[in-house]
Amino acid sequence: MKTKLCLSLFVLSVFSSHNVWAQQPSEAQKLDSITITSTAIELPFKKNSRTITIISSKVIKQSPATNLAELLQQEAGIDVRRQGVNGMQADLYIRGGSFDQTLLLIDGIKVEDPQTGHHTLNMALPLEVIERVEIIKGPAARVFGQNAFTGAINIVTKSNADAVNSVGYKTGSYNQQQASGTLGTNLKNTTLIGHASLNTSDGYRHNTDFENQNYFVKGRFNTTTNPIDVIGYFAKRDFGANQFYAVESGSDQYEETQSSLVGASTKFKTENFKITPRIYWKRTQDMYLYVREDPSVYRNLHLSNKVGVQVNASYTSSAGITGFGIDAAKVFMTSTNLGERDRLMANLFVEHRFSLVDNTLDITPGVSVNYFSDFKFHAFPGVDVGYSIDDVFKAYANVGYTYRVPTYTDLYYVGRTDLGNANLEPEKALSGEIGVRYFGVNVNAYIAVFNRSSNNLIDYTKENVDDKWLATNLKSLTSTGVELNLSSSFKSGLYTQNISLGYTYLDENLNDIKTAYSKYVLNALTHHFTATVRSKFLKNVSQSIVYKFAERASGTSYSVVDVKATLKLSDLELSVIGNNILNTEYVETGFVPMPKGNILLGVNYAF
Question: DSSP characters for 385-404?
Answer without folding.
Answer: EEEE-SSSEEEEEEEEEEEE
